[in-house]
Write a sequence for this structure.
């Protein structure tokens, strides 16, 4: 399966690319796939294709377009890591959420989309997925090893939210994990799963910390969650 690139209109007048993949049936609930710090690269496109294969109309937006459109880095060289962190540090969080809101509403209107749209994000995208549950009209959200979530735990969560947390995450220290659990465990809209012994990016195929068993389990939980909340 291969998707296509479409153009998304930003709220402030710009335009940016989104990689769109549709299921074989041509119809299904929407899922916005939110990138890591490496851009809409081969891995993110394959993840988007995977959600399409599971029956979703899936769309992965280029959220680095305001800094440099078309970023496609890998996690294989020091130079690419350095550029990825430059982009992460230069990222405007508020405008990123605005761009995700535009992406969600664009996807709702796509041919074949049922009108219900969830989000799923990884790393930086995991933080942004969390914010789609508090700041947008997304119908459900899934965060994989989201960073800096402790900054947002007091925001009211409006949509069902699932968090996949790696207990040995090098970017989310144990004290932050404890704060996340303490702040959110009693919220009935939120489901938290811990992956014992796993590090950041355990679901990134080919990455240093990839763990197939944990990635497969998280994917099953995510798809079941979307089925329950998106139809």
């Amino acid at each position: 399966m291969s998707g296509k690139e479409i153009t998304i209109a930003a709220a402030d007048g710009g335009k940016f690319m989104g990689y769109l993949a549709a299921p074989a049936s041509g119809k299904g609930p929407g899922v916005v796939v939110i990138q890591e710090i490496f851009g809409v690269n081969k891995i993110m496109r394959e993840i988007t294709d995977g959600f399409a294969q599971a029956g979703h109309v899936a769309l992965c937006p280029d959220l680095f377009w305001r800094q440099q459109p078309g970023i496609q880095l890998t996690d294989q060289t020091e130079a690419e890591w350095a550029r990825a962190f430059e982009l992460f540090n230069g990222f405007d969080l508020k405008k990123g959420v605005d761009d995700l809101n535009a992406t969600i509403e664009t996807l709702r209107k796509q041919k074949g989309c049922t009108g219900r749209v969830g989000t799923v994000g990884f790393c930086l995208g995991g933080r942004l997925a969390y914010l789609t549950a508090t700041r947008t009209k997304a119908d459900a959200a899934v965060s994989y090893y989201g960073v800096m979530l402790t900054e947002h735990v007091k925001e009211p969560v409006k949509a069902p939210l699932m968090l996949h947390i790696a207990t040995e995450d090098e970017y989310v220290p144990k004290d932050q994990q404890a704060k996340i659990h303490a702040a959110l465990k009693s919220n009935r809209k939120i489901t938290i799963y811990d992956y014992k012994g796993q590090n950041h990016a355990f679901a990134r195929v080919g990455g240093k910390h990839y763990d197939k068993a944990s990635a497969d389990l998280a994917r099953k939980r995510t798809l079941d969650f979307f089925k329950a909340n998106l139809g």
